[in-house]
Amino acid sequence: MTSFISALDAIIGVLRTALLTLGALTAAGAALSYAVRTRRISPFSGVARFTRNAIDPVFAPVERRVLRLGGRPAIAPWWALAAVVVLGLVLLGALGFVRGQLALVAFAASNGTRGLVTVLVTWTFGVLELALVVRVLSSWFQLTPYSPWVRWAFALTEWLMRPLRRIIPPLGMIDITPIVAYFALSLLQGVVLRLIA
User: Fold this and answer.
1) For the chain, which end, N or C, has fewer CB atoms within 10 Å of the first or last residue's CB respectively?
2) For residues 10 and 14, what is the distance between their CA atoms, to the nearest angstrom?
3) Long-range contacts, 18-26 (Cβ 8 Å, 24+)
4) Model pLDDT for residues 2-60, shown as the tens digit of each residue
5) What's the chain's average pLDDT?
6) Average confidence (pLDDT) over 126-144
7) Structure letter (DSSP) for residue 53
8) Cα dihedral across residues 128, 130, 136, 141: positive or negative
9) Based on the number of CB atoms within 10 Å of its own CB, is 124 exposed (0-12), middle (13-18) or buried (19 or more)?
């Protein structure tokens, strides 16, 4: 298991460098394409011809999507850069999460019953914290608590949110109860893990 985790660490390191390079190249291409499209660089220069022939075709799929959504074609390269950055962060975050879970399972395997209980407690609190995040995001997108996409998050966290809402008043239009609940769960997880150890 440790050799697999080491291999995953190496893959994450290489991928991080590759994504950083891709992001830098996309940023340079986006800046050049934007400069040509907005005529900050003469459209008749050699740089503009190179940009139209070599760089703009890379951004063409993003440009079509931006146009379909009613955006301006000149900003398509910046949307492409945003997509590269967000997808890169999501990919690295997912691989980091998998690596962390594998390390947790390796820890549980090496520590017997205590390790297994530690993993189960960590996963339980992780699911509860994820449910709080989903609950907050659902309020931003105005999803009903009865939606099948978010119903599970409300079912898992209502036992904690209801008493906190009675104690903590909203700050204007902002409900800080999920933040307090998140920190309370983190503190409770630390206490439970200390009791187990």
Assistant:
1) C
2) 6
3) 19/84, 19/88, 19/91, 19/92, 22/84, 22/88, 23/81, 23/84, 23/85, 23/88, 26/77, 26/80, 26/81, 26/84
4) 788 888 899 999 999 999 999 999 999 999 998 988 888 888 899 989 988 998 899 98
5) 89
6) 89
7) I
8) negative
9) middle
Domain ranges of the chain: 2-196
Give the orientation angle of helix 177-196 with respect to helix 151-167, to 10 degrees.
100
Two tokens at 195?
A: 């009791």
Give the whole-angstrom CA distance, residue 132 versus residue 153.
7
Rounded CA-CA distance 51/100 in Å is 42
Angle 156-159-164 from CA coordinates, rounded to 5°:
125
- Name, in order, each residue with C-beta under 8 angstroms of 47's C-beta and a sequence gap of 6 or more: 32, 36, 41
Angle at CA of residue 2, ends 130 and 98, nearest 5°: 20
pLDDT of 67 reads 87
pTM of this structure: 0.68
Per-residue pLDDT tens over the stretch 82-107: 999 999 999 999 999 889 888 888 88
